[in-house]
C-alpha cells in the first residue's frame, strides 16, 4: 500500500479528486493520507471512501459552499475585476468584511459537518493526519486521528483550513491558522507512520514546506500540467477542468498516456518516426529546406542534420531528444496553436489527423517567409517568428509522404 499527501491550495482542490479517480481505476490501494487545508478536507473524504460525494462536490463547486457572501461580488473580487463603474461597490464590500472581522465561512463549517463522519474516520484502517498552526501557542500542530480529542476531528480539519481573512473563530479557547504556514505538503507526517512509497499531490500553491527527512522515501510527485486557478476561485468550470487534469496527469504519471501537455496513446515506435523522416522524397526534403533558406545539399543529410536541428532551435528543444520526441513536441505545439482541446485522451493517428484538419483551415498570413531572402530565412529570430507557419507547411509535406508510403 502507498500513502498519499495532499497539498493545501483552496479552490484548486478538485485536482486532487481527479488524481484519486485515476488511482481508483489503476487499482492502487491507499493506506494513509495526510493533508493540509483543503488537502485535509479531501483527505478525510478519501479515508471515508466517499468518492462520489467528493467528485460531485467539486464538479458542482460554488463560492456559496465556502463563504457566506454575495457570490457575484465575491467572484469579481477574487478575479480583481475592478473598474470605475464598480469601485464603490468594492469599497462597500471591503467595509463589510472589516466590520464583520473577516469573511464568513459558516458554509464551509456546514460542509465539513455534513461530509465528515468522525466515527467512520476513527474506525478506518487508513491512517489520517493533518497540519494546523496554533496562533495562541505560536506553534505548529501535526495531528493524527488518535491525537485528536473525541468529537473534535471536524473542528481540527476546519482549523487546518483557516486562512487569514476568515472570520475569527476559536477551538478549545485557542485561535488557529491554516497549516500551510508550517507545512503545506506534510510528507514527513506520513513517513513517520512507516510509509516508504508516497504519492505527493501538489497544487502549485504558495505555502511553506518542510524538508523531507527520510531520503530513502520513494516519492511520486503529481502536479498540475496547466493552470488550476486562484486560491479562492471556486468556479464550477475551472473546477471541472481541474478534475479532468488531475485524472489525466495521474494516468500520464503511471505511463497510461504520453506527451508533454497533451495526453496521447498508441504512439508509434521510435523507428517509425525515423523511417518517416528518411522516407520523404528528395523533392519533399529539398522543399522543406528551401522554406528556411537551405536549397542545396544531400537530401537525407539535410533532413537529419539541418532541418531537424532548426526545428529543435525554433521550439527550444534539446538536440538530445529522440526523433519521436521532437515530432510529438512539434505536433503538441501546433495543437495548442490551433486551439485543440487539451484535457482528453487522443490516440496518435486521431491527434495527427485533427491537427492536419486544423492547419488546413488556418488563415494564411499575408507575408510569406518563402519570399524573404535566403540569408534572412536562416536567421533564428525570423524562424521563431514564423514557426507556426513553418511547422504547418512541414507537417503537410510529411503527411503527404505518409499517404504515398502507407
Which features characterize this protein?
Cytosolic phospholipase A2 catalytic domain; 406 residues; 2 domains; 9 strands; 18 helices; single chain; two-stranded parallel sheet
Structure overview:
The strands form 2 sheets. Strands 1, 2, 3, 4, 5, 6 and 7 form a 7-stranded mixed sheet that branches. A two-stranded parallel ribbon has the order 8-9. It has 2 domains: 2-254, Cytosolic phospholipase A2 catalytic domain; 264-399, no CATH class. Helices cover 48% and strands 11% of the residues. It is elongated, with a radius of gyration of 26 Å. It starts with a strand and ends with a helix. With 406 residues, the protein is α/β, with parallel strands linked by helices. Helix 1 (14-25) crosses helix 3, helix 1 (14-25) packs parallel to helix 10 and helix 13 (299-315) packs across helix 14.
Main sheet properties: 7 strands, mixed
Share of β-strand residues = 5-15%
According to CATH, the fold-level topology of the largest domain is Cytosolic phospholipase A2 catalytic domain
The separation of the N and C termini measures 47 Å
CATH architecture descriptor of the largest domain: 3-Layer(aba) Sandwich
CATH class of the largest domain: Alpha Beta
Please provide the count of β strands. Answer: 9
Domain module tally: 2
Helix run count: 18
Structural class: alpha/beta
Instruction: Report the mean per-residue pLDDT as an integer.
Output: 86
Amino acid at each position: 500500500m502507498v500513502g498519499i499527501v495532499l497539498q493545501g491550495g483552496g479552490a484548486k482542490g478538485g485536482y486532487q479528486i481527479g488524481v484519486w479517480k485515476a488511482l481508483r481505476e489503476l487499482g492502487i490501494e491507499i493506506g494513509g493520507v495526510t493533508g493540509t487545508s483543503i488537502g485535509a478536507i479531501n483527505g478525510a473524504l478519501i479515508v471515508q471512501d466517499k468518492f462520489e460525494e467528493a467528485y460531485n462536490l467539486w464538479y458542482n463547486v460554488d463560492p456559496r459552499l465556502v463563504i457566506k457572501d454575495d457570490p457575484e461580488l465575491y467572484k469579481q473580487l477574487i478575479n480583481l475585476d475592478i473598474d470605475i463603474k464598480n469601485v464603490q461597490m468594492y469599497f462597500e464590500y471591503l467595509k463589510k468584511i472589516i466590520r464583520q472581522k473577516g469573511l464568513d465561512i459558516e458554509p464551509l463549517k456546514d460542509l465539513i459537518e455534513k461530509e465528515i463522519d468522525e466515527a467512520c474516520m476513527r474506525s478506518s484502517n487508513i491512517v489520517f493526519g493533518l497540519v494546523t498552526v496554533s496562533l495562541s501557542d505560536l506553534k505548529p500542530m501535526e495531528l493524527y486521528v488518535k491525537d485528536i480529542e473525541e468529537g473534535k476531528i471536524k473542528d481540527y480539519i476546519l482549523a487546518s483550513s483557516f486562512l487569514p481573512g476568515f472570520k475569527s473563530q476559536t477551538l478549545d479557547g485557542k485561535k488557529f491558522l491554516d497549516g500551510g504556514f508550517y507545512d503545506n505538503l506534510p510528507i514527513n507526517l506520513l513517513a513517520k507512520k512507516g510509509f516508504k512509497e508516497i504519492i505527493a499531490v501538489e497544487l502549485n500553491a504558495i505555502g511553506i514546506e518542510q524538508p523531507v527527512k527520510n531520503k530513502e522515501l520513494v516519492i511520486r510527485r503529481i502536479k498540475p500540467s496547466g493552470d488550476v486557478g486562484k486560491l479562492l476561485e471556486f468556479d464550477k468550470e475551472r473546477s471541472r477542468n481541474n478534475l479532468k487534469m488531475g485524472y489525466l496527469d495521474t494516468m500520464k504519471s503511471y505511463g497510461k498516456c504520453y506527451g508533454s501537455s497533451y495526453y496521447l496513446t498508441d504512439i508509434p515506435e521510435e523507428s517509425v518516426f525515423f523511417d518517416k523522416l528518411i522516407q520523404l522524397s528528395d523533392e519533399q526534403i529539398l522543399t522543406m529546406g528551401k522554406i528556411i533558406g537551405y536549397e542545396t545539399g544531400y537530401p537525407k543529410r539535410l533532413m537529419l542534420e539541418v532541418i531537424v536541428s532548426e526545428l529543435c532551435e525554433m521550439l527550444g528543444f534539446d538536440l538530445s531528444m529522440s526523433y519521436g520526441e521532437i515530432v510529438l513536441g512539434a505536433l503538441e505545439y501546433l495543437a495548442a496553436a490551433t486551439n485543440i482541446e487539451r484535457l482528453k485522451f487522443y490516440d496518435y493517428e486521431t491527434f495527427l489527423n485533427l491537427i492536419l484538419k486544423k492547419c488546413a483551415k488556418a488563415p494564411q498570413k499575408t507575408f510569406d517567409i518563402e519570399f524573404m531572402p535566403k540569408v534572412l530565412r536562416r536567421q533564428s529570430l525570423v524562424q521563431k517568428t514564423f514557426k507556426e507557419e513553418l511547422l504547418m507547411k512541414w507537417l503537410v509535406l510529411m503527411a503527404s509522404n505518409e499517404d504515398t508510403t502507407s
